[in-house]
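FYI - complex with D-xylitol-5-phosphate, inputs then prediction.
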Amino acid sequence: MKRTLVAPSLLSADFLNLKGEVEMINKSKADWLHMDVMDGVFVPNISFGFPILEAVGRLCTKPLDVHFMIVHPEKYINQTAKAGAMMMSVHYEACVHLHRTIFQIREAGMKAGVVLNPSTPVSVLEDVIRDVDLVLLMSVNPGFGGQKFIENTIDKIARLRNLIDARNSKALIEVDGGVQKETAPRLVKSGADVLVAGNYIFKAENPLIAIDYLKSLD
Ligand code: DX5
Ligand code: ZN
């Protein structure tokens, strides 16, 4: 039986109650905590940086899944490793020397993820798919929580699954953006291994129940 991994996205948390939100994640069935770093250049929004990452890293008992929406993410590999990240994901569109960056992330002791914007085809990963631990498909244009899910993602997951199998890759497929009650089962059916969800979890009346629901999908 396939086990769906769930990664709540901290971007939608109540930042005035960050400690309480992380404690809620700690006692939940969530597998990872997803953290979005934005620079106002690669995406039209700014979120949080290392002071928050490090503070959350000290309290959070779940592995940190850090999603960089910034230009030159390679400059921050060591700092991200020091903050205790398990996974460092960088955008294909932001990395000129993606192969080098992937290996530097792994050398720093983290798992390496590559993120594709909705307009980037999975075929660009042909030559690195065996070297990455995870591919994160954006199912919204990156930068904001609470956006509408882009339907093309469902077919895109199937195309990525074919590429992974054809190349004998062990990469996990993660999906980020507009994941909620209705889209989540279809994403899992199409082959997603990891579901990121911000609004659906943190704005829920009971986030623990929202997490349980996503965990129940297979
Ligand atoms: C968007 C971020 C997402 C965001 C998802 O650029 O990468 O992680 O928090 O938010 P929801 O799940 O609300 O669409
Ligand atoms: Zn994200």
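Residues 5-216 form a domain with the TIM Barrel fold (CATH 3.20.20.70). DSSP finds eight helices and eight strands in the chain.
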